Amino acid sequence: MSQRQLKLNAFLMTAGHHVAAWRHPQARADGGIQFEHFKQIAQTAERAKFDAVFFADSAAVWGAGAEQEAQSRSAQADHFEPITLLSALSAVTDHIGLIATVTTTYNEPYHLARKFASLDHLSGGRAGWNLVTSANAAEAFNFSREAHLAHADRYNRAEEFIDVVTGLWDSWDDDAFVRDKQSGRFFKPDAVHRLDHQGKHFSVRGPLNVARPVQGYPVIVQAGSSEPGKELAARTAEVIFTAQQTLADAQAFYRDVKGRLARYGRTPDQLKILPGVFPVVGRTREEAQEKYQALQDLIQPAVGLALLSGMLGGADLSAYPLDGPLPDLPESNGGKSRQSLLVELARRDNLSIRELYLRIAGARGHLTLVGSAVDVADQLQEWFENDAADGFNVMPPTLPGGLDDFIELVLPELRKRGLFRTEYEGHTLRESLGLARPVNRYTHKVVA
Model pTM? Predict the structure, then answer.
């Protein structure tokens, strides 16, 4: 039996994940709208045999609730729409998975099903959908709403949304399209299935006007860690992106979510849990610390405060001293799990507001690792081998340099320990992740 190995995604953000990455001398400040920038990075990640590249998204300017001065200093105001970008990247890559975030809160299921089915065909079976419910309240104002949907309503909508999407992906049998020029028959008349969905949020007739995706369904990813988020993931997700600060917290989350699968007739190997990790890697610990401090020195207080306020669901911290404690906050209508994580971090480590925004300026609540290749590999191995993770969502501090450092320094160490692949296991993202191809609900035929 072959050794179990890590799954690794490259989580890409414009110039990098650190809030001040775009100001770094080696970062590309205009990277968010430069295809060559992302092409180079995606091809680098593919040569390194990463499972996938992943793009987050929001349907509003990041930090739109911040003061104009702070907002003007953020690099997240200008970037590609991810499905468009991944469609272009599918033409210049061959094996690496292509995962995009698309919210269920301000989209329609038919649009989403059609776009991801198209991406899966364009890429030969490498698409993945990161299902989120919008945490950015500013999105509401771009979709004819005067207020953001309540957290519970967002998840209620998401539960129905995903059922409609997967139903649409099952519109066609895998062998439906015969395209027989001799007989003149384009598809088998009994191989198409109309959804006829009628629910609380959606009325969708179908069928989808794209053939069943290469993978059956694109890989379904979920990023919520609230109670409704974990339950939705247990029922529907095949990969979870999560933010965890400690080994104990990660183990508890891992046990919790994997333990919910049985009630939906699922087994633990049908869900991969990938915490985010922000690695700053040097050839020595001292070099890594110098790299990290150089980024921290670029943080402007207004930007750090705006980042923290946004991560806390839009909390107004302007009336409180930066070097004072984080005040008690009302429950957020944004991302509940992230607000809880940051408040717990501040209380646990007795952090001031300034210390808290400095702590999250790179990883935004995910695990931060600063050290040598051995240091970083040791921690990844510890989490992996102690039921805290099936792999990681790697968040490079800068791009392309931060990813290059991880590939050059950490991956050889992981491979030396037998913890990461040297070649892809197949062509599709499902094959890379070790996930089965879903059966069509109408035919119940398993296709290899």
Answer: 0.90
